[in-house]
Design a protein that fits this description.
One of its GO terms (molecular function) is UDP-glucosyltransferase activity. It contains 19 helices and 15 strands. By secondary structure, it is an alpha/beta fold. The protein binds uridine-5'-diphosphate. Residues 18-19, 22, 265-266, 292, 294-296, 321, 351-352, 354-355, 371-374, 377 line the site of uridine-5'-diphosphate.
Length: 489
């Protein structure tokens, strides 16, 4: 087959949430940089940020195209315009959002018929995409967007159910068979495992379908690199038997070419990028704590006050990204806080240019909710972390950072809570900040973090582990597409 006239065509389908769309755009750029024709499928209101991210890229890709399918808000019982998890008005609408996601199968298949790609890379939240691709005789690859560690931990948890062997929610149990003797409590587990209410159970069913589609699909792409979690990459492939390609960190593959650190990711930043850099430039190396909880987490005002008090008591410089709950009122800072911390602290209300901030040399630590993108961005930046997991698979990622990589310390969150974080007191915040910023232990964690950052860069360089895996993946798909071509003749 003439690869010039009929290049490999991959259709990528990101889930409508920033934590999924951001890495998928990076993945699309990666494929495109290898001469692959890429079509990104999304919905009308999710298209502008994707277009913007591509326009802002220094490398211009004329082989990436965006196609939209309608998002059935009203049909699923959602308010008009609610096309992203970010815009779900309250937790009670979450089931309707996922009902809308199911309704996307038919328009997605119509698009496949029209586009005729050679392969589909669809987010985990579209388990039906495996069947859709099969109808067209093409492979479906799953993109989970999380670590090997959490993929393995959640499989072991499901398979062995070790949490059923303890008598209380706060007793520690070990995750059976998972390397590393990792211990957790029942309180830290997702409600799909521990609750019997209809909503939790409908999500448990969705996760069953996801696991099943993972096994039935052609394989899994993981945004990680071998050197970071080799034990778990091996376990995933060899013990759990899943075909995988680890090709991350996606975002830094093209860095050493023309690509620079992006200031636009997901949304327009709520602070001027130059102003932010100017502020950071006035600070000493490794002297600022950066705190951000991803794109979805909210805290109550009472928790925000504790955070403010903890940051102030630590005595360290900080950048704190805050999203408040409008229904919780405006009173979320202790009186006189901004005056007292003037020059020492910067509060970003809304969306921050996270990657740009993290990679500034003034950043000395990252307080993170342990969403996988954030953890990986922290690894790339070579900063130690304070882990503050909230929901999803974040408690697993916390274990990876604090007990396997040993580049961070837990703030001490006890309970998994959907979207709104659990309560942590100010002195725990102060203690954790001091622990990663001061003394011998902090020095060791920083050195380890810097080593991991070096490894991440090597993984994406020529002949690095992720670089080689990416080439192998593209070659395999090219060869498959050749056979598809022949069988269609
Ligand atoms: N992000 C950002 N600015 C913010 C909050 C988040 O740029 O103020 C980006 C962050 O860099 C990451 C993504 O949004 O790439 C969040 O993904 P993650 O997996 O960390 O968490 P999620 O939002 O899915 O919980």
């Amino acid at each position: 087959m003439d690869s010039q006239s009929n290049p490999l065509h991959i259709l990528v389908f990101p889930f409508m949430g920033h934590g999924h769309t951001i890495p998928t755009i990076d993945m699309a750029k990666l494929f495109a940089s290898k001469g692959v024709r890429v079509t990104i499928v999304t919905t009308p209101l999710n298209k502008p940020p994707i277009s913007k991210a591509l326009e802002q890229s220094k490398i211009h890709f004329n082989n990436i195209d965006i196609q939209t399918i309608k998002f059935p808000c009203v049909e699923a019982g959602l308010p008009e315009g609610c096309e992203n998890v970010d815009s779900i008005p309250s937790v009670s609408f979450v089931p309707a959002f996922f009902a809308a996601i199911r309704l996307l199968q038919q328009p997605f298949e119509e698009l496949l018929l029209q586009q005729k790609p050679h392969c589909v890379v669809a987010d985990m939240f579209f388990p039906w995409a495996t069947d859709s691709a099969a109808k067209f005789g093409i492979p479906r690859i799953v993109f989970h967007g999380t670590s090997f560690f959490s993929l393995c931990a959640s499989q072991c948890m499901k398979k062995y159910q070790p949490y059923k062997n303890v008598s209380s929610d706060t007793d520690l149990f070990e995750i059976t068979d998972l390397p590393g003797n990792i211990k957790m409590t029942r309180l830290q587990l997702p409600n799909t495992l521990t609750e019997n209410d209809p909503i939790s159970q409908s999500f448990a069913k969705l996760f069953e379908e996801i696991k099943d589609s993972e096994v039935r699909s052609y394989g899994v792409i993981v945004n990680s690199f071998y050197e970071l979690e080799n034990v778990y990459a091996d376990y995933y492939r060899e013990v759990l038997g899943i075909k995988e390609w680890h090709i991350g960190p996606f975002s830094i593959h093209n860095r050493n070419k023309e690509e620079e650190i992006p200031s636009y990711r997901g949304k327009e930043a709520s602070i001027d990028k130059h102003e932010c850099l100017k502020w950071l430039d006035t600070k000493n190396i490794n002297s600022v704590v950066y705190m951000c909880f991803g794109s979805m987490t909210h805290f109550l005002n009472s928790q925000l006050k504790e955070i403010a008090m903890g940051l102030e008591a630590s005595g360290h410089n900080f950048i704190w990204v805050v999203r408040t709950q409008t229904e919780d009122g405006d009173e979320w800072l202790p009186e006189g806080f901004e005056e007292r911390t003037e020059g020492k602290g910067l509060i970003i209300r809304g969306w921050s240019p996270q990657v740009m901030i993290l990679e500034h040399e003034a950043i000395g630590a990252f307080v993170t909710h342990c969403g996988w993108n954030s953890v990986l961005e922290g690894v790339v930046a070579g900063v130690p972390m304070i882990t503050w997991p909230v929901a999803a698979e974040q408690f697993y990622n916390e274990k990876l950072v604090t007990e396997v990589l040993k580049t961070g310390v837990p703030v001490g969150v006890k309970k998994w809570v959907m979207k709104v974080g659990d309560n942590v007191e100010w002195d725990a915040v102060e203690k954790a900040v001091k622990r990663v910023m001061e003394g011998e232990e902090a020095y060791e964690m920083r050195n380890k973090a810097k080593m991991l950052a070096e490894m991440a860069k090597k993984a994406v360089e020529e002949d690095g582990s992720s670089y080689s895996q990416l080439n192998a993946l593209i070659e395999e798909l090219r060869s498959l597409s050749h056979h598809q071509h022949i069988s269609q003749e």
